[in-house]
Amino acid sequence: MSLTTEFERVSLPLEYPFTISRGTEDTAENVVVRIADGEGTEGIGAAAPSSHYGETAATVEAVLPDLLAVVEEVGDPHQLDRIERRLRETVERNPAARCAVSIALHDLVCKRLDVPLYRYWGLDPDEAVPTTYTIGIDSAETMREKTETAVERGHAKLKVKVGTDRDEEIVSTVRDAAPDATIRVDANEAWSPREAVRKIDALAAYDLEFVEQPVPAGNPEGLKFVRERSALPIAADESCITLSDIPQIADKADIANLKLMKCGGLREAERMIHAARAHGLEVMLGCMVESNAAIAAAAHLAPLLDYADLDGSLLLDDDPYEGVPMAGGTIDLAGLDRPGTGVRPT
To answer: Does pTM top 0.85 for this prediction?
Structure first.
């Protein structure tokens, strides 16, 4: 079989500037990959690189020719394990770039078989958990406005970014604007261990679900310190990147937060989910700020999760692709009426 490949960078404006404890972005740079089989079937994927993990759109564009050369050399898109192994051997780092190829291949394979991805994996669409909607750091007035808008759009689960000197004001504002919502918070490594324990004690009064990555990933013992003293469950995100991290966080967190763009592909993500379960961890799948060209694939893993944070495309002002329906945060796999990941140009 002869496969053809191509890629392009897309700049995606956000609905609101998105601020976390590390900084602000108002545009997301994604790189879209297309792989075609010569018979009129095309798979679509995308990379949403994060500079925090050493990737940019430019580095993705730099390594994609080598990665796509592997795909063309193997020739058979159904050889997913073989191709993903070769991708890791070709480019050890740059997981978002490898992930874009993985997503496009899975989309192509499922379109060739005329099944949606969740059916290819044998998953039950009715088991899909809903996604949160993220409220980025902003003024209290703007955070209230964002929260009220999210609630009006039907979102019953919210993730609130913290890691500032006014965290209690932030959480109080969101809780007041969404009294019935399920709320979790994400500090993005912003606190010291003792500060985290103090802040979590204070924030727990606002009926929170759990706290994500309270301390820097480079301080694993600090994470363990917090988990042993925390009034709320702890999720590890920046401390949980690849499969080998799962056993390292098993006694330091309650929840493993995986991301396709961190681990490098769909098959690696599935391995991480099962490994996390084996280590007694609950599982969340998160995302970067991503087009549906990437998010659509992640949504198909929702039946395997305890928590989903797959709102990357919902944060965009305009997405050139549509994917799995997610009205009000409900990941509606059963409502998907097309094969593959569900991604298609709008």
So the answer is: yes
Pseudo-torsion of CA 279, 283, 288, 289, nearest 10°? 180
Shortest CA distance to 138 belongs to which of 155, 159, 168, 162?
162
SS3 of residue 180 by DSSP: coil
CB contact at 8 A, 268 and 243: yes
CA pair distance 80, 261, nearest whole angstrom? 18
Q: 143 near 135, Cβ under 8 Å?
A: yes
pLDDT mean across residues, the chain: 97
Of the pLDDT bands very low, low, confident and very high (cuts 50, 70, 90), residue 1 is confident
How far apart, in whole angstroms, are the C-alpha atoms of residue 28 and residue 136?
15
The predicted-structure confidence for 189-204, as pLDDT tens digits, reads as follows 999 999 999 999 999 9
Enclosing domain of residue 133 = 119-345
Count of CB atoms situated within 10 Å of the CB of 238: 19
Residues 213 and 111 occupy one common structural domain: no
Mean per-residue pLDDT for 245-259? 98
Residues in the chain: 346
Q: What SS3 state is found at 51?
A: helix
Q: What does the block give as tokens for 50? A: 């994060």
Domain count, the chain: 2
Q: Report the alpha-carbon angle 278-184-333, nearest 5.
A: 65
